[in-house]
Specification:
about 140 residues, alpha+beta, FAD/NAD(P)-binding domain, 2 domains, two-stranded parallel ribbon, two-stranded antiparallel ribbon, 4 helices, binds flavin-adenine dinucleotide
Length: about 140
C-alpha cells in the first residue's frame, strides 16, 4: 500500500485525503491546531456562534463532483438561499440583501450605485473569463 502525508486538515487536505483513500493510499494527516477543518470552523462566544470563514456553498457543483469522485454518498441536500445572505456596512443603517438575481441585486444597491447592473455585467464578464481560463 502506498503512503501519503497531507499537511493541513482544511477542506483541501480533507477532500484530498478522501480521494487518495479511495485510490488505495494510506493517508496520514498533520495539523498544527487542536482541531480539523482549517478555516471551516466556528467560534462560540457569549451565546453567539461565528463562522470563521465559509458559511455557504458558492460552487456546489464542485462538491457534487467530489462526492462522485470519492464514491461516498451525498451527506446532505443543497437548499438554494434567496437572498444568499445579508450585509451591514459601518455607518449605514440599511441591511443589504445579497441576491443571486442581478436585477434584484441592482435594485438593492440603487441608492449607492445607480449603474450597478451595467458595472456588474462588466465585472462578471471579466471575472468569468479569468475563472474559465484558470479552471
Ligand atoms: C472570511 C472568509 C469567508 C469565506 N466564505 C466562504 C464561503 O462562504 N463559501 C466558500 O465556499 N468558501 C468560503 N471561503 C473560502 C474557504 O474558507 C477556503 O477556500 C477553504 O476553507 C480553504 O481550505 P484550505 O484547505 O485550502 O485551507 P485552510 O482552511 O486554510 O486549511 C489549511 C490547514 O493547514 C494547516 N496548516 C498550515 N500550515 C501547516 C503546517 N506547517 N503544519 C500543520 N498544519 C498546517 C492550517 O492550520 C489549516 O488547518 C471563505 C474564506 C474566508 C477567509
Amino acid at each position: 500500500m502506498k503512503n501519503a502525508i497531507i499537511i493541513g486538515t482544511g477542506l483541501g487536505g480533507l477532500t484530498t485525503a478522501l480521494r487518495l483513500s479511495r485510490r488505495g493510499y494510506k493517508v496520514h494527516m498533520v495539523e498544527q491546531y487542536h482541531q480539523a477543518g482549517g478555516r471551516l470552523n466556528q467560534l462560540k462566544k457569549d451565546g453567539y456562534t461565528f463562522d470563521l470563514a465559509p458559511s455557504f456553498f458558492s460552487m456546489s457543483y464542485e462538491f457534487t463532483e467530489f462526492v462522485k469522485d470519492a464514491e461516498i454518498p451525498m451527506p446532505f441536500e443543497f437548499i438554494e438561499l434567496d437572498p444568499l445572505y445579508s450585509v451591514n456596512f459601518r455607518d449605514t443603517k440599511k441591511t443589504y440583501k445579497i441576491f443571486k438575481d442581478l436585477d434584484k441585486l441592482a435594485n438593492e444597491f440603487k441608492e449607492v450605485e445607480p449603474h450597478f447592473r451595467e458595472n456588474i455585467d462588466k465585472y462578471l464578464d471579466s471575472a468569468g473569463k479569468f475563472f474559465h481560463d484558470t479552471n
